[in-house]
Specification:
CATH architecture of the largest domain in chain A: Alpha-Beta Horseshoe
Low-confidence stretches of chain A: 212-223, 267-281
Shape of chain B: globular
Strand content of chain A: 15-25%
Largest interface: A-B, 44 and 25 residues
Largest sheet of chain A: 9 strands, mixed
Helix content of chain A: 25-40%
Oligomer: heterodimer
Structural class of chain A: alpha/beta
Number of strands of chain B: 33
Number of domains of chain A: 3
Radius of gyration of chain B: 28 Å
Distance between the termini of chain B: 67 Å
Structural class of chain B: alpha+beta
Helix content of chain B: 25-40%
Largest sheet of chain B: 8 strands, antiparallel
Number of helices of chain A: 15
């Protein structure tokens, strides 16, 4: 049976963070209920077309899925169990922000069958949290983490964000060490760099007209200088990025994707991830659901704006909240495109190369009936000569240097 | 006057000429030269010349109001947008004066910008008089003076019109006085006009009858006609605009241009309706009109040349013809190298309409195949550039404009340098000369200091200051042309809050201490970025160029030095640091298309780059060095 990942989007949060450009917003209880009515209908209605699939991962993302009445989530879990071929040990993740889920709620999630929790810590420094516009402090995280463990979660991810305003390399190291010092240690750590996205308050602050860009950093003009210190310069940012690998490596984690680290399974060699079959938990704590995105597996997204790759077609739901509600369970599928061979090859490369283990030449040949050399030989030669890529037998992967400039490398694979 | 009768046997009647069909012309047998008025309107830019022309055309009833487009004389988009007139045009109108007689008015529109000075001069030569339009608020300005003097040089009778009297700030009495004091022409009975509202137009028309002299020519003498403009039509070839001085220009005769020597059989003659051509049988002495003769090459019938009858030529050509030389050169390259043939075709077509546009193929290591093009001035350059981009849909890379330098080599030879990268080895150069202009800046006294400072910075040589009234002065400076072709106008405006006006004419060449500044990117010289500069300004220029380029060149995997050098000696340096991090860390919720878009954008950006050695330079970089003073 073919396998499938399910993504469920919960577009609600208590308050938008200053850097956030995800599809999320605060809404009242009543509108949340209307949304979940439509969402549950959508999931039920879609069960038919997913009949031939075994669901191996589910991901509740947001927004903040734990900011809503836990009953909504519990009911969705019931629907999934009732209408879908949900594998018994499927990886089922919920994203959680500290301060939004108490001990009872966490127990309810766990009892409903959710077995992985991803906690958005971002920083272990209250000052930094405040600057990001986060609603929680470190103490609330600690409580949340403890409650999650007590509720029975044995697979926990903690999100951290580097290159924050005013952050030094030492500040960042402290955050990493704090997370590694948790007891028990989280099984998974996502360590992202802050990216200033257009349309966010941070964009206004750091890239807007008021911001004066000087040589290596951003100088904030006017009164907000103390509130919004400059972003780290490029060299510090890169230093943070490299320290991440070193510190997490020393603490028993291996990097398996550009920004993702998983605790080594017992007996497994450090710093080596295996690509492995999609539904097989190669590195025990690597996030199956995310790996599915990078390895070209089928997934279907439910909820506002959710993206899908299903039966060789990419599409996403409407991002218009009203329209989504009005569609009442059958939202319009937008921008549907059947990927042609070239586009599939491109994705195979630029997504696959996000994985530390890289891509397999053999798999390429199986999938497309063409030799990877014939299609990309010249680019390989170029990148290898620049020390950005290595080829080891069947495996083609980016070097550390290549991962540093992965966009530069990946853009080359667009045909 | 049998000749004149046949002039008005209209063969083809356009929409705008319904009046003729109504029989107005059927009894015009007695029409003669004394009823013709050939004139132009001169004004400082923005004083309302085109609007006045429109109102006059409207009032004389050639067009109905409904048919009037705003500013019918300016029929090119760019002109309308910029509010200036580039290509001179002519229009004929019929005016029934208060004395009961009907007059033929040939109004010849002149370009308003100093770049087109020669065309202005030829247009003036086609006239017998001029209307001087002066803004009732602004009063006399630099170009007002320049244009009036030009008109007086051509022996035209000039009478003033005070325009924009509807504005609250209008001060017509003061302006009249100013005209009398500064220009020295009588102004006390000048018509007070609001061209915008249409008031006072009758007064202007009457003044044309009484204050502009009728032409004096001998219809019986051999043909002698001045070419004052031309346009290219893909069906009829070059349409030549002429003012007939003596004799008669007829369909079927063999016409000859006296300077070019080219001759053709005349296919059609006619006169100008607003925005259209009205054929007739012949044009006699005193009249203004056009002819076609299947002329393929506009260079054969250039503005200023004299047309005569090949079978019965006149003794001598009309005075004043000169071949117009381009003053400013730049490289024009297609942004997409594959578009070279399109660029060539577009330039060919533009040249058909613009005899003063010069171009020849050139090759740049940095930019590939393109053209070196010569222009009358910077505005001319900008207009051509815009027309290429707008009308021909081309994306262009333009190199820094350069004036023409005279290079005196040690072997005694002299040559004109139009492309800085062709400068010979300094050892072979005896000395160099650069073009100098006589500049006149009219400015309110408050800004005299800052404008003088600007002129000093631009290597200006102070000549004089004349106070034309208590609060306004004319500063005269000699300025090197290469100091004013970049951003002088902008600087002038910003330092005088828009109050200064500038006019110049080429004075000649003078010896100067010039050097070639080269730009090296990753140790490779980029020919398209080389330019000639006075040695005193070289360091500053080089430093600014490097700074600007640093901001334009994206990071590469390696460090890129950007250097400015004179003859191998580096005088300024900046470094583009190596790209060390370029990661999109987030890849959330399976939204792959977003990731793809980002990568596609990155790849698309690369396409717009030019490869110099191992460095990719965005096209923008070549343009940005033209605007070095921005933001300073």
């Amino acid at each position: 049976m073919k396998t499938l990942g399910i993504y469920i989007h919960i577009p609600f949060c208590i308050q938008k963070c200053l850097y956030c450009d995800f599809l999320s917003f605060p809404k009242g209880r009543q509108e949340q209920t209307l949304y979940f009515d439509a969402l549950k209908k959508e999931i039920e209605t879609s069960a038919e077309e997913c009949r031939d699939y075994e669901v191996v991962s589910v991901f509740f993302g947001g927004g903040t899925p734990t900011s809503v009445d836990p009953q909504h989530i519990v009911e969705i879990m019931k629907i999934l169990k009732k209408f879908y071929n949900l594998r018994e040990n499927a990886e089922i993740t919920i994203e959680c922000n500290p301060g939004t889920a108490d001990a009872t709620a966490l127990r309810e999630y766990h009892e409903a069958g959710i077995n992985r929790i991803s906690i958005g810590l971002q920083s272990a420094n209250d000052e930094e949290l405040k600057r990001l516009g986060r609603i929680h402090n470190l103490r609330q995280f600690e409580e949340c983490y403890k409650n999650a463990r007590e509720a029975g979660f044995v697979n926990v991810n903690v999100d951290l964000m580097s290159a924050l305003p005013g952050q030094s390399v030492e500040d960042w190291e402290r955050n990493l060490k704090y997370v590694c010092g948790l007891n028990p240690k989280p099984e998974h750590i996502s360590a992202y760099s802050l990216i200033i996205e257009e349309g966010t308050p941070f964009y206004q602050i750091y890239e807007g007209e008021a911001a004066q860009i000087e040589k290596n950093g951003v100088v904030i003009t006017g009164d907000n200088k103390d509130e919004y210190p400059p972003l780290p310069d490029e060299d510090s940012e890169r230093e943070m990025y490299h320290r991440t690998g070193e510190i997490l490596g020393a603490n028993g984690y291996h990097r398996y994707e550009i920004s993702n680290y998983a605790m080594n399974s017992e007996g497994e060699a450090a710093n080596v991830g295996t690509a492995g079959p999609l539904d097989d938990d190669g590195g025990k704590y690597e996030c199956l659901h995310n790996k599915r995105y990078w390895q070209g597996g089928d997934y279907i997204g439910f909820g506002l704006g959710a993206a899908s790759l299903f039966n060789g077609e990419r599409f996403h739901n409407t991002s218009d909240f009203r329209k989504y509600l009005e569609a009442s369970g059958t939202p319009e599928k937008q921008d549907a495109e059947r990927l042609d061979t070239a586009a599939q090859m491109e994705e195979f490369m630029f997504l696959g190369l996000r994985m530390i283990s890289g891509v397999s030449a053999g798999e390429f040949k199986n999938k497309f009936g063409q030799s990877i050399e014939d299609v990309y030989g010249e680019i390989f030669a170029e990148l290898i000569s620049e020390d950005l890529m290595v080829r080891e037998g069947d495996t083609i992967r980016l070097t550390d240097k290549g991962l540093d400039v992965s966009n530069y490398c990946m853009a080359k694979f667009l045909i | 006057m049998a000749v004149m009768v046949s002039l008005f046997k209209v063969c083809h009647i356009g929409n705008g000429f319904k009046n003729y069909q109504n029989g107005i012309w059927s009894n015009m047998a007695e029409f003669d030269q004394s009823k013709i008025r050939n004139f132009c309107i001169v004004a400082h830019i923005d004083h309302g010349k085109s609007t006045l022309a429109d109102r006059m055309i409207e009032t004389t009833g050639v067009l109905t109001s409904r048919e009037m487009q705003n500013q019918v004389l300016d029929n090119m988009d760019i002109e309308r947008e910029r509010g200036i007139t580039i290509k001179s045009q002519a229009v004929r109108m019929i005016y029934k004066a208060k004395d009961g007689e009907e007059y033929v008015f040939n109004m010849i529109d002149t370009p308003g910008h100093v770049d087109f000075g020669y065309e202005v001069s030829r247009s003036l030569a086609a006239c017998d008089g001029a209307i001087l339009v002066v803004d009732a608020t602004q009063g006399v300005e630099a170009q007002t003076l320049a244009n009036v003097y030009l008109a007086l040089d051509h022996d035209l009778d000039v009478f003033p019109v005070i325009n924009k009297i509807d504005l609250p700030s209008a001060r017509p009495d003061e302006v009249k006085e100013e005209i009398e004091d500064v220009i020295g022409i009588e102004a006390h009975d000048a018509p007070l006009v609001s061209a915008k509202l249409g008031t006072g137009i009758e007064d202007v028309l009457e003044s044309v009858v009484h204050r502009i002299p009728a032409p004096t020519g001998d219809a019986g003498a051999p043909l002698k006609a001045l070419i004052f403009d031309s346009v290219y039509d893909s069906y009829r070839g070059v349409i030549v605009f002429v003012r007939v001085r003596d004799g008669v220009l007829k369909k079927g005769m063999t016409a000859k241009c006296m300077a070019s020597g080219a001759s053709w059989e005349v296919v059609e003659v006619g006169y100008f309706g607003p925005g259209q051509f009205i054929p007739c049988d012949e044009l006699a002495a005193g009249s203004v009109g056009y002819f076609t003769a299947s002329i393929k090459n506009i260079q054969d019938a250039r503005v200023g040349d004299t047309v005569t009858n090949a079978a019965n030529p006149c003794d001598e050509a009309l005075p004043g013809y000169k071949k117009v030389m381009p003053m400013v050169y730049c490289g024009l390259y297609p942004a997409d190298t594959a578009k070279y043939p399109e660029l060539r075709d577009a330039l060919e077509k533009l040249q058909l309409n613009d005899a003063s546009l010069f171009y020849e193929p050139e090759t740049s290591q940095a930019l590939g195949f393109g053209f070196r093009a010569g222009f009358l001035g910077l505005l001319h350059l900008e207009v051509i550039q815009e027309r290429l981009e707008r009308e021909y849909n081309l994306d262009l890379v333009t190199t820094a404009p350069s004036v023409v330098y005279k290079i005196h080599k040690t072997d005694g030879t002299v040559f004109d340098l139009t492309n800085p990268s062709n400068l010979p080895d300094p050892a072979e150069i005896d000395y160099m000369e650069e073009p100098i202009v006589n500049g006149e800046i009219m400015v309110t006294t408050d800004y005299v200091g800052s404008i003088m400072q600007l002129c000093q910075e631009r290597r200006g040589k102070y000549i004089s200051t004349e106070y034309i009234e208590a609060t306004r002065a004319v500063l005269k400076y000699e300025l090197p042309l290469n100091e004013i072709i970049y951003d002088f106008f902008d600087a002038l405006k910003s330092r005088s809050r828009g109050y200064a006006s500038f006019d110049y004419e080429i004075k000649g060449y003078e010896q100067s201490e010039l050097v070639k500044l080269d730009i090296l990117i990753n140790h490779e010289q980029v020919d398209a970025l080389s330019f000639i500069v006075h040695k005193d300004g070289a360091y500053d220029r080089g430093r600014k160029m490097c700074e600007k380029l640093k901001g334009e060149i994206p990071r590469h995997l390696f460090e890129i030095p950007i250097q400015a050098a004179i003859g191998g000696k580096v005088i300024a340096r900046e470094t583009v640091k190596a790209m060390r991090k370029d990661v999109l860390a987030k890849c959330y919720g399976g939204d792959i298309s977003r990731k793809r878009k980002l990568l596609e954008k990155q790849k698309e950006g690369k396409k717009k780059m030019r490869q110099i050695g191992s460095v990719e330079i965005p096209q923008q970089a070549f343009l940005s060095v033209l605007k070095l003073d921005e933001g300073n």
